[in-house]
Amino acid sequence: MLKNSIMGINKITSIVHFNATETNREFIFQQLYYKKYRLKILKQLQIT
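Request: output the structure for the sequence above.
Response:
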C-alpha cells in the first residue's frame, strides 16, 4: 500500500514538474518574442 502511494505521488510530482517546465518555456518564448517585436518597432520609428 505504501509503495503504491509513493509511486502515485512520484507520478503526480512528475506531471506537475513537466507542466511547470512547459509554462516556463512558453513564458521565455513570449519574452523573447516581445523583445524582438519591440526592437523592430523602435527601429521603424527611428527610420521615419
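The helical segments are 2-47.
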